[in-house]
Amino acid sequence: MSRNAKIAAGGVVVGLLLLIWLPWWVAFLIVVGVPAAAYLALDPSQRRRVRRVTRKELGR
Length: 60
What we know:
Strand content: under 5%
């Protein structure tokens, strides 16, 4: 299993656990809010780079 596949599988497991223990809207806020907060924490130049890079190149 590749590193990215392990991360994806872990994310699915965490998401399912959140849905079981928390109301659905709280789990949704966490799932959407964490990546959004991480994106907003980047410098403007880093944001441009993330937007420019294709999905395949993000793992480099």
